[in-house]
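Q: For a teaching handout, I want to show students what a protein-ligand complex looks like in token form. Below are the inputs, and the small molecule is phosphoenolpyruvate. Please produce the holo structure.
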Amino acid sequence: MARKFFVGGNFKMNGSLESQKKIIEALNAAKLNTEKVEVVVAPQALYLLNTRAELRKDIGVAAQNVFSKAHGAYTGENSAQSLADAGITYTLTGHSERRTIFKESDEFVADKTQYAIEQGLIVIACIGETLAEREADKTIEVCVRQLNALAAKVKDWSKVVIAYEPVWAIGTGKTATPEQAQEVHVEIRKWANEKLGAQIADALRIIYGGSVNGGNCKDFLKFEDIDGFLVGGASLKPEFHNIINVHN
Ligand code: PEP
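A: Here is the structure, written as tokens, with phosphoenolpyruvate included.
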């Protein structure tokens, strides 16, 4: 099955109305290969609505985080139902910054993922090991633990994109080599095949994130299990366009 290449831009907690406007205008003016590549940007929550209103419609908008309840006394949280209502049709879950800084557990991430899917969102679910876990040879064990937690809750895998993001490669300038990424992506697909069945495994997009930039993105293309990228720092720069157009 041909999997549509996926490129997400995670703006993290960056930007101002002014800088955001410039990024949107540049994306709107660019010649982007959105027929071949599904493109999504994730601004901070404050800028979701204006981004959705001003950005070209062949680029999706994602929340960086979501909560597993519709409404109520959950101060500071993003309702998946409200996101869907506002045309924000994607969300990240389980980004390593959420897992490490905000202590989100595997189960909590899985709950939010399933709830967001129920509200009609597509979820970019992030997994990945820390440096200490990699050095202790626990990369696959950690990824499988995070995946098993997701599998315990998620019912519709066609609404999930898995982002493999080794924590040691995020925002550090230390990219995993394409070979290291492919090695883990193969294991993730093997896991999906065993746990979810061949059809789901074949269709599941597994994207890589961790210091991807305009200079290194092409190196990942030779591996068939790398179905795209989740881009942090470089998504705020003009080189994001080159990453989207990596096949050109
Ligand atoms: C991210 O935030 O998901 C990410 C991959 O960041 P960076 O590209 O800056 O490493």
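A: Two things your students might notice: The chain has one domain: 5-245. The domain at 5-245 is CATH 3.20.20.70 (TIM Barrel).
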